[in-house]
Amino acid sequence: MKHSERVLFLDIDNCLYSPDLGISQMMKSRIYAYGREIGLDSDEVEETCSTYFKDYGLTVRGLVLHHNIDPQEFNDKVDGSLPLEDIIKPNPLLRNMIESANARIWAFTNAGLDHASRVLKCLGIEDLFEGITYCDYTEPNFPCKPEKRVYEKAMKEAGVSNPQLCYFADDSAKNVEAALQLDWTAVHVSKQTSSCEHGYIAGEDNIIRCCHIETVLNLPQALPELFS
């Protein structure tokens, strides 16, 4: 276990593995199939699910609120049905990079616990994380990124009270911006251009750096203070 006071929060999906694996597309097709199964109009299911995702952070939250679905059934038929073990393979380079970080390592995901644990196991890095802040679909009005309260939840669960000790990597620009608003140091992991690629964003008491990298393996270059 790392003894540093600093905590490196790592998103999981499309961050620790490449989005080119197509897992997001597989998940979307399963969500749409589930939507049709519960009675959503076939011609409107994609738009409805997309609207829920934009309005509530996760499609499942909208389905729970407006269609009274069983969240465990959703989890089993969507996340749980993904053939992750056939797609995601152990990544020694990722493991070596995480092991070299001078920070405590914590997973911070919008997925459920089962899915998050499966991905980390497939990558061969599950033992490197002290814990996982995840979405409990069965919890009424559960928080998810980019809501402020889930970042506060992550800090509490990881046992860190000073936001200046919090470092974060995520593939979502919205999630990165939310972290910056809380004075975390954040890195946007994406092959697409980031809004904070070239600059610095001022926090309340200091300057918080927002970096952009194309792959999580570039974290040592983005956050040299954690890998020196």
UniProtKB/TrEMBL annotation:
<dbReference type="InterPro" id="IPR036412">
    <property type="entry name" value="HAD-like_sf"/>
</dbReference>
<dbReference type="InterPro" id="IPR010237">
    <property type="entry name" value="Pyr-5-nucltdase"/>
</dbReference>
<dbReference type="InterPro" id="IPR023214">
    <property type="entry name" value="HAD_sf"/>
</dbReference>
<protein>
    <submittedName>
        <fullName>Suppressor of deletion of TFIIS</fullName>
    </submittedName>
</protein>
<dbReference type="InterPro" id="IPR006439">
    <property type="entry name" value="HAD-SF_hydro_IA"/>
</dbReference>
<dbReference type="InterPro" id="IPR052791">
    <property type="entry name" value="SSM1_domain"/>
</dbReference>
<dbReference type="Pfam" id="PF00702">
    <property type="entry name" value="Hydrolase"/>
</dbReference>
